[in-house]
Amino acid sequence: MTDKLRIEEIIVVEGKDDTRRIQEVVDADTIETIGSAINEDILEQIEHAQETRGVIIFTDPDFSGEKIRKTIMEVVPDAQHAFLSRQLAAPKKRGNSLGVEHASDEAILEALEKVVTPIIESDDYQEIARQTLIEYGLIAGARAKERREKLGDELRIGYTNSKQLTKRLKMFRITEKELIEAMHNINELPSEKSEESI
Hints:
The protein contains nine helices and six strands. By secondary structure, the chain is α/β, with parallel strands linked by helices. The protein has two domains: 10-114, Dna Topoisomerase Vi A Subunit, Chain: A, domain 2 (3-Layer(aba) Sandwich), CATH 3.40.1360; 130-186, no CATH class. A four-stranded parallel β-sheet has the order 4-2-5-6.
């Protein structure tokens, strides 16, 4: 494949291996955060990149990747996001950590084609009630973590803990209808319904 997809925005990744892997698949410039302790210089670079060309945050689907995403979002709240599921970022060798560098060409391309942009503030957004999230077993109860992981993949909003979930759903303007549809797609209906279907 000689004609690589050209990405206008600068992609923010964690390290050299991610840069190498992304540049094998697409024609893009990157900024490396060099781990989760991002310094001021790198944050300034990211800010400048957002002003000039826009940035896509593409970190690993793990705890430190989410921490980096959060840190950048405080400085550049309107940055775009690309997400990989934990499954697609799984290493071939046991013992290695999850990472963008382990993803296939197809997974990287799909993640970049389905980039999402958070909405900063909007008056007409109806926040999803916490009770609804509890009913769907996303906040409390057995397998809540597993359900949130599946939901994050389905909605392409990344993995969240129960505290972050409401915030992330609001940030990406996920409606209750979209949430219910996604839960149907991953076969996770509220407990009273799922027990009947077992």
